[in-house]
Recover the amino acids of this structure.
C-alpha cells in the first residue's frame, strides 16, 4: 500500500528546488473520492488542491531533510498519499545511498509533519492578515483545533478550515507510532537505539496495538470507514512483519 507505484504515461512530472516530483493518476482519483462527501463541486475542487499542496509540502519536508544529510531523493504522490524515496548516487565505480544514523532518520521522519504544521501556521497568519478571526475549537471534543472565520463569506472560511484540517489533524495522526507512518519510524529508531535486539519487535507490537485501537475509534466513535480501514490494514501489515521477524529466530 505504501510502496512506490510503477510509472505511467499519465504521470504528472515536475521539479521543485532540484527535487523531482511524480504524481500518479490514482492520486487524483483518491483525492476526488475523499472529497466527494461534499455536495459542492467547488469545495471538491478546493479539497483536491488543498490535499495536493499539503501532501507535497509534507514530502518536501522529508526531501529537504534528506538533502541536509547529503542524501538525494525524489517525491511520489500516489493513491495512498506520498512517498519521499532516497536515490542512489555515484560512488567509485557504482552507486550507493547515504547511510543515515538513527537520529538522522528520526529528523527526516519528523520533518514531514512539521512542514505541514509550518504550513498551517502560515495559513493562520494569512487568515489573520486578511481580517479573519482566529478561534480555538476542538476536534471531536478532545483535540484543541484553531479555526479561521473569514469576514468575506463562508466559502473562504471553508478553504482555510480545510487547509488547517489536513495539515494539523492528519499531521498529528501521522505522528502516531503506527508503521509505516512517520511516527512509526520515529518509534522504531528510538527503540532500536535503546534495545538493538528487541527494539524493532517492540515497535511493531506498539504499531499493532495502536493501529487496532485507532481502527476501532474510527468506526465506533468517528463513524469513519476510511480511518477504520486504513489503521486496520496498517495494524495487519505490522502483524505480518512481526510474523516475518518470528520466522528469523
Amino acid at each position: 500500500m505504501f510502496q512506490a507505484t510503477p510509472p505511467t504515461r499519465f504521470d504528472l512530472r515536475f521539479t521543485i528546488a532540484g527535487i523531482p516530483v511524480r504524481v500518479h493518476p490514482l492520486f487524483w482519483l483518491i483525492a476526488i473520492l475523499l472529497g466527494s462527501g461534499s455536495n459542492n463541486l467547488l469545495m471538491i475542487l478546493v479539497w483536491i488542491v488543498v490535499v495536493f499542496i499539503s501532501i507535497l509540502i509534507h514530502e518536501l519536508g522529508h526531501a529537504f531533510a534528506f538533502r541536509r544529510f547529503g542524501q538525494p531523493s525524489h517525491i511520489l504522490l500516489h493513491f495512498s498519499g506520498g512517498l519521499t524515496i532516497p536515490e542512489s548516487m555515484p560512488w567509485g565505480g557504482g552507486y550507493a545511498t547515504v547511510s543515515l544514523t538513527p537520529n538522522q532518520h528520526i529528523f527526516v521522519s519528523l520533518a514531514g509533519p512539521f512542514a505541514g504544521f509550518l504550513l498551517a501556521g502560515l495559513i493562520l497568519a494569512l487568515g489573520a492578515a486578511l481580517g479573519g478571526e482566529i478561534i480555538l475549537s476542538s476536534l471531536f471534543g478532545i483535540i484543541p483545533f484553531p479555526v479561521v472565520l473569514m469576514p468575506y463569506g463562508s466559502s473562504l472560511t471553508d478553504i482555510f478550515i480545510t487547509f488547517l484540517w489536513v495539515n494539523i489533524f492528519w499531521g498529528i495522526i501521522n505522528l502516531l507510532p503506527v508503521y509505516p507512518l512517520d511516527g512509526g519510524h520515529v518509534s522504531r529508531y528510538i527503540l532500536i537505539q535503546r534495545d538493538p535486539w528487541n527494539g524493532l519487535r517492540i515497535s511493531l507490537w506498539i504499531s499493532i496495538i495502536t493501529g487496532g485501537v485507532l481502527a476501532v475509534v474510527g468506526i465506533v466513535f468517528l463513524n469513519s470507514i476510511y480511518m477504520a480501514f486504513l489503521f486496520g490494514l496498517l495494524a495487519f501489515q505490522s502483524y505480518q512483519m512481526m510474523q516475518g521477524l518470528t520466522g528469523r529466530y
In short: The mean pLDDT is 85. The longest helix spans residues 41-68. The longest strand covers residues 133-139. The helical segments are 25-35, 41-68, 102-129, 154-174, 182-194, 199-220, 225-246.
